[in-house]
Amino acid sequence: MAIKINRKLTAKKLLPKLKRFFDLSGRKILAIEKSWRASKGTPVFTEKGQYTTRGWTEWTQGFQFGSAVLQFDATGDERFLKIGRRGTVKRMASHVSHIGVHDHGFNNVSTYGNLRRLMREGKIDADPREMEFYELALKVSGAVQAARWTSIPEGGYIYSFNGPHSLFIDTIRSLRVLAVAHQLGHSLMGEKDRKISLLERLIHHAEATANYGVYYGEGRDHYDVRGRTAHESIFNLNDGSYRCPNSQQGYSPFSTWTRGLAWALCGYPEQLEFFMTLKDSTLKPFGGRRKLTAMMLKAACATADFYLENSCTDGIPAWDTGAANIHRLGNYLAKRSNPYNDFEPVDSSAATIAAQGLIRLGNYLINAGKKAEGTRYRQAGLTVAATLLEEPYLSTDPKHQGLVLHSIYHRPNGWDYIPRGRKVPCGESSMWGDYHARELALMLLREARGESYLTFFDY
Fold first, then answer.
1. pLDDT tens-digit profile of 255-279?
2. What is the predicted pLDDT for the residue at 56?
3. 9 lies in a domain?
4. CA nearest 24: which of 411, 365, 398?
5. What CATH number is given to the structural domain containing 185?
6. Within 13 Å, how many C-alpha atoms sit on residue 183's CB side?
7. How confident is the model at residue 38 (pLDDT cuts 50, 70, 90)?
8. Whose CA is closest to 245, among 320, 310, 165?
């Protein structure tokens, strides 16, 4: 069994739920703004309903202020624009020049990128100097991200915070900052003034992730199931050869951590949309449009199918498809998800990311003339969205600062809060889950209102 797709859902039919969602969202943002102290660091996930921090890497601050910007886009409430702008100016500069992480697309497109988009759309007043500020930040961020590079015989990849040997599946979504910087005409400058194309690095990273981070059922190893993903791919730096899969946040290298799966499912359709803006002549040096879109579409469809096959009937997945006690849930895929079970947690944050990817993939295929296939993915994404817009996933408790409940951060490290009387983590939220829920909801809200299609790049 797998997700039970609602074929009748539309963005307009979800409009009442979307309005309720953004009403709750605004209250949560204001509650965090009132209580959070910058000296604590960055809010990461909730414990007992209150946002807390966790030192690892500062990858969620852009989601904090980006959420306020998305809230302004949805509601027009100037309070949230002020929070987003002020937070971006005061807190985000260090993220632009951060050489130690693979998270630039998360932090900086969510803040500088969203603010630039609003100005281009006319939703905030045009100010040439303010626009230059946003664009400079995005140019620098894209170049800094692209400089975090490991070469392999067939190209290369942006390496993770684990070091040059490590390719994370997550980073496919950080490619958005390279795309924006490329659109702005920027390049990375290397030794002897060598001009390095950001688009070229984006393409090589997308290829490496598709080749090593995504499986296609082609006999690569004993656990090669089409559509599953490895969180981490390990390379030998002496000769650039691939060695093995690994996992930092999943159960094992040979099971599928579903948030990593969701990053790929969302990242590839976004890049397919971005590539529609590029000329054939621009893509020709890198293999041409047909080859590159086929590579990304293969990865997108494989991960989408695996997600749908390994989610409960309401579209919510377990945190990892091979977790130790998942067998004790029985035929859990034949039922609606149960975040309060005693054996393995679900991960709503994976669902918030995957739902957007499914909708974008569906839209892309429909536009390409593949209506039946595209409609299936799109309606699946709407089905997941509808689940997230209701209890038990939507947080309606005014005392809880989280927006989407039952998110998982790092199960192996034991970082997720387990409520008294429960055996596994549940009932808590994460900054990335809440942000991506808002991004998903905004995309649907804009569609329902007849506004322009939400993208991270310029059409």
1. 999 999 999 999 999 999 999 999 9
2. 75
3. no
4. 398
5. 1.50.10.10
6. 18
7. confident
8. 165
State the total domains in the chain. Answer: 1
Instruction: Compute the CA torsion angle 76, 77, 78, 79 (nearest 10 deg).
Output: -150
- Taking a C-beta distance cutoff of 8 angstroms, is the pair 316, 337 a contact? yes
As to burial, measured by CB atoms within 10 angstroms (0-12 exposed, 13-18 middle, 19+ buried), residue 190 is exposed
**pTM above threshold 0.85:** yes
- Cα separation of 40 and 54, whole Å? 10
Instruction: Give a yes or no: residue 326 inside a domain.
Output: yes
Full residue range of the structural domain in which residue 161 is found: 15-449
pLDDT tens per residue across span 105-121: 999 999 999 999 999 99
57 vs 177 pLDDT, higher one: 177
Beta partners for 257? Answer: 320
> Measured in Å, how far apart are the chain's first and last C-alpha atoms?
39
In a domain? residue 457 = no
Q: How confident is residue 1, by pLDDT bands cut at 50, 70 and 90? A: low
